[in-house]
Amino acid sequence: MTSQAYLEKIQRKLKRYRIESAMTQEELASATGLSLRSIKRFENGNDISAGNLIKILIALDLADLVDNAIPDLDNRPSAYVDKQKNRTKQRAHKKTTKNTVEFKWGDEQ
Length: 109
Known about the structure:
- By secondary structure, the protein is an all-alpha fold.
- Helix content is 55%, strand content 0%.
- Helix 2 (25-32) crosses helix 4 (50-59).
- The mean pLDDT is 84.
């Protein structure tokens, strides 16, 4: 899929999401701080800056979904395993000696 195809798909989805959320273009423009013309142009297929796209996502309460779609390389399971490999192992509890009677076989004195 080309970058233009992705952009068109995102534009269609965001327009539909805005409409399903009962938000007008004017309300979206007000919430984002963008001009009404910019919102209309974006929804009609024109390009938009990444910053303005983020503003639209925040206004539609979708920014967290986009953030979660990009893997966090610091919190991946293998990063946790890598951290554990570099740590020296320690006992959970100190070994204590108890006053126990030594075991003796029956033929020993």
